[in-house]
Task: structure prediction
Amino acid sequence: MAAVPTDSGSRPAAGARFFCTAGRGLEPFLMREVRARLAATQVEYISGKVFFTTCSDLNMLKKLKSAERLFLLIKKQFPLNVSSVSKGKILSEIHRLINDDPESWLNAISTWKNLLELDAKKDKLFQRAANPPKRKVEENDIINAKKLKTEQLQELQESGECPLEKQMEEETQEQGDFLTEREKSQEAFQNNVVKAADAKNQNDLTFRVSCRCSGAIAKTFTAQEVGRITGIALMKQFGWKADLRNPNLEIFIHLNDIYSVVGIPVFRIPLASRAYIKTAGLRSTIAWALASLAEIQAGAFVLDPMCGLGTILLEAAKEWPDVYYVGADVSDSQLLGAYDNLKAAGLKNKIELLQVSVIDLPLPSESVDVIISDIPFGKKFKLGEDIKSILQEMERVLHVGGAIVLLLSEEHHRRLKDGEQSSIPLNSEGSHTGEPSIKKCLKPGGKTGTSETVSSSFEASSQECLDKTPPFGSLVPVECHKVSLGRTDAFICKYRKLHSLGL
Result:
């Protein structure tokens, strides 16, 4: 099938078009987040990716928690036609990704340049404001200096001289002297990238291509071959220079049987790689999704009774700081690792750690507002009665109206259903059967209505299924999402306590 026109060349004046990669099943979390955090519009999804338009700057974009990586969109279209087509025709279709609409590439480069320029200016202002003179000045010295300046100013005014211009030059020079070498090198890097990104100086721009291929096209071309073909086409079209080691610009291409997507990585380090987590446990994006589903309010008491390395509590405390957090675990090594993580993140005074059993919590009944936990997979807990006794103890300490959010293995999930047939219809991809067709999100010039359909279908399908699900004790299921953990799948399940256990 021939490539169809895309929506990337007609970006709204009010914002730029981006997309994020996300773990399978986390698309609804990311869609909610970009709307809430970035005031994003035209929010759409296809499997593993969420597309949106926003006016937010890089500082706000860096705050996305449920995304793996962030890209500035160049092209989004239907897949390349590789069935019963010669290799030469497929090569022509790959070339058409660049040659058919060069304006979309130049627009994306211009947007990328503007984002970097704005970020560099803000960063420079922040550095100067945050780096006052390092010399400690006594209070009396400050008073005396002010008196001296006042006296000097009076003398100069009497003589008719104007010192303001000279004073501004001296202060500017003084501020520049306090920039560290690291800050100077970072500023120089930003300036070089911005200069190279200027469309008028295309010969100065260096680039490399990162490519992922799956499905039918992967049987014909390797990712390296597609990357090389694309790179040659870009050099011929725009005069850019290839640099595999330290390029100014990286081009990301993902080709499969469902879509063809081309974009520019906005940050070199993935959003999912948290600088504040020393030792990784649960995937940070999954941990944040668990916490976001709990509806944490200021002043709440939040408990993770099987905290492990504390990843869930770290993600929650970074996002919702004015909360009392407690992490519990029976393992010495896990608690030591959790303490190291809390210390590295500067949160050891925000989160209390306890060495206790999850089935014997030293807490009064109905004393906890929110419980969030990753129920360990494997052989640590028996899959029969233990999972139920764990949930019963959580139910005891949770107050009426409180929420429990759990990450459950498929086996745990089945056990909690008491062997009854699950009322949540899932297709082979683990998604609700009520999801809209992926092709809806690939329609050229798609309108905002597509995003609303996506979001409402997730919520309506989830609610319809959960209404049929019998409650467990006083806990009633509220939401359930099937997510990918890499080699295995799991369920993020939310329960709410409706009444006291005595009723």
Notes: The mean pLDDT is 77. The first helix runs from residue 27 to 38. The CA atoms of residues 480 and 493 lie 4 Å apart. The two ends are 63 Å apart (CA to CA).
